[in-house]
Amino acid sequence: MNPCADVQRRLGGYLAMELSEAEEQALRAHLQRCSGCRAVAEEREPSLILAGALARATGEAEDDGFVAGVMAAVHQRRLEARIKLRRRRWLAAAAAAAGVLLAGLAALRHGPVEEPLLAQRPAGRWAVVHVVPATVEVEGENIRLYQLSGDAAGEVQVAFIIDPKLEL
Amino acid sequence: MALLRLVQVRPDVTGERDDRELAAAAQGGDESAFAELVRRHQAGVRRCAGRVLGDAEEARDVAQLAFVRAWENLHRYDATWSFSTWLYRIASNIAIDVLRSRDSRERTHTSHLRLVEDRVGASALGDLAEAEVHRIFAELAEELTPSQRMAFLYREVEGMATAEVAQILGCSEATVRNHVFQARAVLRRELARRYPEYLPRGGGR
């Protein structure tokens, strides 16, 4: 059978998108190399003129710079992900520490009233007095935690100061 | 048996690995395998993005972002899909976002200015310079929805099968056909209105 006659007979099915994938590929290949059949197809469906012109435009070539750019971006994302992971671990540790702190605070606030933990110096500044075991003090929303323990060599003080304004 | 062994050995002899093998290696963290996938598909993704967006620089950015997102989401890649289909789907979603974020009024204004300036000359659309063909398509395609534009480009220009286009666009084959029919009708109408000199003498339908 004349291939052009066959293609033109099936053109309606092609434009209606009713052909199988294999038939479609064969018909497209024929249209690419046969200007006569292509003209018939374009007359029936003028948008094929535009499609054909776009398909013949070769477009982008391989570009090593592009590959390098993508891989650099990939490395950057990997680095950012690692930093985020570390930050997340640090935040988890900080949250755990804060949890311990707040638990201690809650226990103290609801526990029995004991001797004052801090005494005010005549100059008006807070001073540490002998306190064992660890204690927590709150001023408004600011928190101080003290661990004062005595041994033979003398007293050892550990202080966590959450707000620098409360520095001893 | 000898033939069978030859067929099995061939990939190792040539050192060529197919996309799925490379994707599997990349899923295990092999960056060189991913770089090879980028090298293989970059031209196609950039070309398609360029046709969709009508802007080479924007297309380059979209293509780069598509590859980076592909890397970040490799654990979601299902090897029952072709790697290129999965990649084009990612690129298409990014391109759709870009199209939607554009200021359509500004683009329409500039396209009409170009229309007045450039309607001189060539006897056939296929004879025009590549950039000019892209510009004309970008102008006419402003009347299309992003999905219609992509269905037309993937099926009618790239020559992809309807089923593959449906996978890329995440819709049914019937929907793809509908998008293509709509796109053809709009492009026919706009071609006749703005560039009648490029139509066949019969004038089409």
Structural features, described:
The complex is a heterodimer of chains A (168) and B (205). Chain A has helices spanning 3-15, 21-33, 35-44, 47-56, 64-110, and strands spanning 118-120, 126-128, 135-139, 142-151, 154-161. Chain A has 168 residues and is an alpha+beta fold. In chain A, the strands form two sheets. In chain A, strands 3-4-5 form a three-stranded antiparallel beta sheet. Chain A has a two-stranded antiparallel ribbon with strand order 1-2. Chain A starts with a helix and ends in a 7-residue tail after the last strand. The model of chain A is unreliable at 119-124 and 127-131 (pLDDT under 50). Chain B has helices spanning 2-14, 19-27, 31-53, 56-72, 83-101, 104-118, 130-140, 146-157, 162-169, 173-194. The longest helix of chain B is centred in the first third of the chain and has 23 residues, at 31-53. At the A-B interface, helix 2, helix 3, helix 4 and helix 5 of A face helix 3, helix 4, helix 7, helix 8 and helix 10 of B.
